[in-house]
Amino acid sequence: MRIASVLVSRFPCAVEISRQPQLAKGPLIVGDAEQPKRVLDCCLEAHRRGVRRGMTVRRALGACPDASIVPPDPVLYRSRWQSALTSFGEITPEIEDVELGRAYLNVSGLQSHYRDEAELAGRIADVVYAATGIEASVGISSGKLTAFVAAITTLPGEVCVISSGEEKAFLDERSVELLPVDPEISLHLKLLGLHTLGDVARLTIPDLQSQFGFEGERIWHLANGVDDTLIYPRPFTEALGASFSFEAPVAGIDVMVAVARQLLSRLRPALSGRAARELILQAELSTGRGWERRLVLREAVSEEERLIFVLRSLLNNFPPPQAIRSLTLRLDGLTAETGKQLSLGDHSRRQRQLEEAIQQLKARYGYSPVYRCVDVEPWSVIPEERQILVESDG
Predict the structure, then answer these.
(1) Residue 389 belongs to what H/E stretch?
(2) Alpha-carbon gap, residue 248 to 242, rounded angstroms
(3) pLDDT tens for each residue of 258-289
(4) pLDDT, tens digit, 9 for 90 and up, residues 289-327
(5) Which of 142, 145, 207 minimizes the C-alpha distance to 176?
(6) Which of the residues 51, 191, 220, 336 could staple to 46 if both were Cys, CB 3.0 to 4.6 A apart?
(7) Closest CA relative to residue 6, chosen from 95, 110, 76, 73
(8) In whole angstroms, how large is the CA radius of gyration of the chain?
(9) CA 204 → CA 199, 223, 281, 321, 367, distances in Å?
(10) pTM of the predicted model, to two decimals?
(11) CA 240 to the chain's CA centroid
(12) What per-residue confidence (pLDDT) applies to 156?
């Protein structure tokens, strides 16, 4: 199997620099804008000065006081990377999404469509740049580890192809920290004086198994360039989406609900005969940052009025923190409509509406504000002991 590893190191920082090129002139920290304030990502220069992901912003500034602090925009990061993943579908259907800025592609059998594998890798890099505006490193080899090492040791926008049979020689001088194993195992290898994959490859399988058990055999194979780890393609999920841009930023919830209703009307023809399991609202804030709220529905919903009710509840309970410039509605997890056994008359519909309203209230307040009477001792001569009030779930 031939595998391509696509890598954009420090993806959030890369996105911020592509949006504001002046940030590349000095150290950059993407810091959490909410409590507790922590580092989401940092540039290589800040990393060299001691900044690490997860540390507090205050501590990061102590290590790198001249760094620029940029609040994170997870919505934009996911959107950019999702665009790249979608574009990969033009090359191969087997795509494993590892994390933001990192993916594996099965490129077996595609060599005949290109002059050589270097041209294929260049095509993948071009696709990433066209989708995100960011240069990616691409490595191609016969296994995931070698392909990843080829990508991580290559400059952005460059490619590296490792021919079959050259994997071990390529890995010999690489650090054991690149092994896809628990960090404690990497530390253990270093304590044993094994700093490179070549050092590990010169041992025997029993030597490694005496230290790491069954994992020792896998480590030996990886160090020798033998990697049969499979690609786990991301599942294809169809989604419907529509967007609306405002002439000027708006902050009124009623306006947002009206626009959301209009967006849902646009999606109605495509939703015909199907139902959605997840509802996603995205907005561009007046500051240029993104905002997103996701709601997984208890059951697939196709009725427009129910979706409008959910949209209104979502916006009332979790409104955007600032005025918005645009609003996007997405329906995910599409499935065929399912039938429901209904009773005659209008009672069951009203009952379902009541249950839905109670569930929404419970989701909002954390408890049910509606109570019902339950018989405890109906024979008691004391009226207060006959029944009690308990929270109603519908």
Answers:
(1) strand 387-391
(2) 19
(3) 998 899 889 888 888 888 888 899 999 988 88
(4) 889 888 888 788 888 888 888 888 888 888 898 899 999
(5) 145
(6) 51
(7) 95
(8) 27
(9) 11, 11, 55, 59, 61
(10) 0.74
(11) 18
(12) 92
pLDDT of residue 237: 73
pLDDT interval class at 207 (50, 70, 90) = very high
- The predicted pLDDT at position 342 comes to 54
- 352: Cβ–Cβ under 8 A, 6 or more apart, which residues? none
Token look-up 């209904």 returns 342
Rounded distance between C-alpha atoms, residue 73 and residue 23, angstroms: 15
d(CA 209, CA 219): 9
> What pLDDT is stored for residue 172 in this prediction?
93
Residue closest to 282 by CA, chosen among 247, 304, 315, 238: 315
Across the beta sheet with 159-161, the strand order is 95-99, 102-106, 3-7, 137-141, 159-161
List the domains of the chain with CATH numbers. Answer: 8-91+110-139 (3.40.1170.60), 167-223 (1.10.150.20), 240-336 (3.30.1490.100), 361-394 (no CATH)
What is the DSSP pairing of strand 274-285 with strand 240-250? Answer: unpaired
Name the nearest CA neighbour of 135 among 117, 155, 149.
Answer: 155
The per-residue pLDDT for 344 is 56
CA nearest neighbour of 225 among 170, 180, 294: 170
